[in-house]
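User: Please run a holo structure prediction.
Assistant: Happy to. Please share the sequence and the ligand.
User: Here you go; the ligand is zinc ion.
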Amino acid sequence: MTDLVKCDRCGTPFSIQTAGIRATWSGDYMVQYFTCPGCHHRYQILTTDTELRQTIQRHKAIAAKIKLGQTKHFRPGTLKKYQAEMEKLEAEQKKRRDELLDKGNEILAALGKE
Ligand SMILES: [Zn+2]
């Protein structure tokens, strides 16, 4: 797998897989991140709260429904309705993800040095 990235801070090239994806909790917030093996800077991948985790679950459920609908040949109107709901959930997810970005960085900064 070619998932080699270069650290913005120190220039160390490393694989996210090798560095390992970790998660830390702060109250209701879960921050997923990886750490540069060179300078130990933490890079945020995703921060979620209960609301966002529920949206992600609903998105998964509707995606599965659409897949089933396509193989079982659901009525086009039904599929269209699912599709519209999925797009709405995707927009919600993106909005909430952006809102939680700063919070995630704050939580990672509060972890201090390794
Ligand atoms: Zn680094």
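The mean pLDDT is 94.
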